[in-house]
Amino acid sequence: MSERSEGQPEPEAGTAKSEGAAGSKGVAEPEGAAAKGTPKAPAFGDAKPKAGAQAKPEPVADPRQVRAAVRILRKEATRILKRHGARIAREPAEQMRQCIAAIDQLREKEDWRGLHTQADLLDQLLDTHAGFARKSALRETLENIAIAVLIALGLRSCLYEPFKIPSGSMMPTLRTGDHIFVNKFVYGIQIPFTTTVVGESLGQIERGDVIVFRYPVDETQDFIKRVVGLPGDEIMVEGRRVSIKRAGEGEFSELPRRRLEQRCFDPESDKPIANCTLYEETMGDRTYVVRYKLSVEEHKDPTGTAQVWKVPQAHLFVMGDNRNDSLDSRRWMVPATAVKADGLLSTKDLRDLTDERLFSMARPDYFDEQAEFSHDHVIFRASHRALAHDLALEVWREPTLSAPAVRASKVAMLASAGVQVHDRGWDALVGPGQGAELDALRRHGEDVAALHVGEDPDAFHAVVELREPATLLALSCGKAVCADEAALARRLGEVLDRLGDNRGREARELLARPDGPTNYSSQFKSRHNPRDHYFERRFASAEVEGARGQVRLRVFRRPDDGTELVRDAALRMLGVEPGKGTEEGGPPEPELDDQGIAAWTLDRGDSWALVAADTTREMVVVLECGKGVCVKESRGKELLQLVRGRLPRAAGDRRRMTALLGVADLDGLPEIPAGRGELAEYDRVQLEASVKGDDHSVELEAWLQPQEGVVGKIEALRQEIPGLEADDAALPGAWSTTDESSITFVVPVSESQTVLRLRCFRGLCPARQTALALVQRAAEKAIDPDNFVDPEAERPLPFVPRGNVKGRAERIWLPLSRFWLPVR
Q1: Full domain range(s) for residue 459
Q2: What is the 3-state secondary structure (H, E, C) of 430-487?
Q3: pLDDT at 84
Q4: 367 and 453 in a common domain
Q5: Residues 215 and 282 in one domain
Q6: Which of 212, 227, 210 is nearest to 173 (CA)?
């Protein structure tokens, strides 16, 4: 038999050729074999004896080897007779058939020596008469290799395939460098090199499965992610919250999760990662761990903008377990030549045609289709100044001019601005009700010495004087944040809690930004070196005791709380009420000099008090001169005149404030320490709000050459948008509708076969004319496709086609420390 029978061991040497017929047990050699002169090849498994030696019979090879070799030879002979029998002479073909029949009989009788002989004869016949049909050794080897490759491909394509994890997008479930086995028949068998799946009914993909699939953006790459959405599901992601509205359900349900105390670790260095949190998340009957790292976007907006995806049929929505560091369905984009609606209406157009100036553009956060390049939808939101969302806090710590005087001046300023201010008890502000939160809030009443509450159309205002140490707070809270006085009390209570924890906190640390979509810009004044704004100097006579022998100068330079407030507080501290006449307890008429500095002289019994205010240079001077030094009023006025003359230079250079009044000016009266503080007593913070919402927005959609045609698309929009009526006065073929919240136009642009839909909300378009101007500008640009077709645009491609799924990840087999762990 030829060596072509692959996989069989080498035959043993020394078997005699002549023993083939003798051991055939009566089975005759086929007729004509010798007569035709057919050369006899060496017997199957035999070798030539040495020269001069007598042939010596040897036992046949192992019966198992003979049986295997004969089976292959018989199969080959049968194949050749079937396919090439017509090309073989009748007599040799008949001899082959007889050999095959003899082989079958001998196999049944287990006559291995006779079987050996018949196999030799059949091998010779095939070589002599059918050599053209026998496979060469090279061909047989190649065929066997091909079969082995096909079997390997079949195993990889239909059963199990190993993969190596290249990145950390599935941390902590899978780590970079993990080797896994993927079950490829659990969801049916995928025909190799196609997206066709046979036997999908064998197993269905479920939410929570970890799958390997071809990346939809580049199908030469394999990705591994967790299935979150099935066909028909709607997925909503808002910050760290993931919610699913399953196909057929009416509401979203948030995926349950539990925060874990374990720390996140870097898989390469095994070092803990800062600002990283692990959660145990549950989806159906699957529980697994996901992790979130604090991102810049999340730091700015902890709640995040809600995004919604509706999964189309035969597609899946997937996410990585390393949620903030995973390229998954939420982030896949594909470059394309696509419509860009912002080419039809730009922020410059909006600034030209509306009253707003600051806009941001976004595409809708709802995706229900694969990338549709002939359609685009953009939303422009104006950053609208929103006074009702503003907050402001002013803080005075142990004010130099006394807390009651500053409080009264602040209340008077609110009243002059149109705020209706009235005295209020703390418990009355907190309001009725019981509970731990309200009880804790009411305890602040022990520290409140006085409280005034006011209201204007946009905000509530509170001015609070606290007891020891004397502190004054003025809080303004917009009505969108503080809807009523109880909300104002809660907001003020938060400030008092933080102040109680640390009296040294600045105002910007005491006032927290409200949660929500409102954008705030912060303006604040810090507590800094008081020498920039305040100067004090004291002198005392050794001969005259008490206030009669003292001189005290206080100068306020460019006070952060305002020249008017400081001036009025100084007058109130000295016992007069600004704004009232002399007979009603108000100050006397001020004296004005040629520089416009107003001055008041007040008799305090033991001293003369003089107040000068230069509102132009933002300077206020309070001079108190005891009557033991300033015996007459004229002496006090003389000193004040010296100070007033030096004010302009001190206003430009704080270092010159020391020269406002000195020992020489007081005839050698000695100076005593003033005891000035290290930090300025006043600071403030103001949170100015701007709101980006639908109230001040405009939406624009554009369809370029829609599949149903321009007429068909407009008809579809008429069915979708209630109340549309023909409006040729706006544009030829246009339709429009108006409701309480918005104005909508639908316009065909025949030159480019484009349909536009513009919806402008009332905050941005209070009148129809504004919306009409916007849609006319967009329609004018839509005539030329070059204005709104971008050859380098990017569009979302969020879903995985079912045919791209290769299988389900099931086991980890490397590294050995994680050997055979299931993929949860």
Answers
A1: 387-525
A2: HCCCCCHHHHHHHHHHHHEEEEEEEECCCEEEEEEEECCCCEEEEEEEECCCCCCHHH
A3: 82
A4: no
A5: yes
A6: 210
Give the three-state DSSP class for 495.
helix
Given this model, what pLDDT does residue 157 score? 52
Q: Which residue bears the tokens 């100070």?
A: 643
* Residue 140 covered by a domain: no
The residues, any chain, with a CB within 8 Å of residue 569's CB and separated by 6 or more, are 399, 401, 402, 405, 406, 408, 409
Q: Using an 8 Å Cβ cutoff, are 527 and 412 in contact?
A: no
CB neighbours (10 Å) of residue 524?
16
- Which residues face 586 on adjacent strands? none
Any idea which residue has 């006579």 for tokens? 541
Relative orientation angle of helices 63-84 and 90-109, to the nearest 10 degrees:
150
Instruction: Let me know if residue 821 belongs to a domain.
Output: no
Which residues of the chain carry a pLDDT beneath 70? 1-61, 135-141, 143-144, 146-159, 190-202, 269, 299-303
User: Is there a single domain that holds both residue 578 and residue 631?
Assistant: yes
The residues carrying an active-site annotation are 169, 225
- Reported residue count of the chain is 824
Which of 787, 766, 791 shows the shortest CA–CA distance to 777?
Answer: 787
Rounded to a whole number, what is the distance in angstroms from the first to the last CA of the chain? Answer: 56
DSSP state of 272: B
Name the residue among 90, 77, 80, 73 with its Cα closest to residue 32. 90
Of 525, 552, 581, which closes a domain?
A: 525
Question: How far apart are the C-alpha atoms of 162 and 193, rounded to whole Å?
Answer: 17
469: exposed, middle or buried (Cβ count in 10 Å: 0-12, 13-18, 19+): exposed
* pTM greater than the 0.90 cutoff: no
Cis peptide before 469 (omega within 30 of 0): yes
Asked if residue 11 is part of any domain, the answer here is no
Residues 173 and 317 in one domain: yes
| CB atoms inside a 10 Å sphere around CB 716 | 14
The pLDDT of residue 386 is 87
Question: In this structure, how many other beta carbons lie within 10 angstroms of the beta carbon of residue 320?
Answer: 27
* Phi, then psi, of 350 in degrees rounded to 5: -65, -40
Cis ω before 815 (30° cut-off from 0): yes
Over residues 147-160, the pLDDT tens digits come to: 666 655 555 555 67
CB atoms closer than 10 angstroms to residue 629:
22
Residue 616 to residue 597: CA distance in whole angstroms: 8
pLDDT at 82: 85
> How far is Cα 652 from Cα 645, in angstroms, rounded to an integer?
13
* Cβ contacts of 228 within 8 Å, gap of 6 or more: 207, 235, 242, 244, 283, 317, 318, 319, 329
- 140 contacts 148 by C-beta, under 8 angstroms: no
Identify whether residues 733 and 784 lie together within a single domain. Answer: yes
Q: Which two tokens stand for residue 74?
A: 């018989």
User: What residues form DSSP beta bridges with 805?
Assistant: 213
| Angstrom distance (rounded) from CA 248 to CA 204 | 18
Assess whether 592 and 521 both reside in one domain: no
Q: Max Cα separation, the chain?
A: 165
User: What's the pLDDT at 201?
Assistant: 57
Could you give the number of structural domains in the chain? 5
Helix (H) or strand (E) holding 406: helix 403-416
My answer on whether 430 and 521 are in the same domain is: yes
Q: Residue 456 corresponds to which tokens in the numbers above?
A: 């204007």
Q: Residue for token digits 């050599």?
A: 131
Closest of 319, 173, 299, 204 to residue 255, by C-alpha: 319
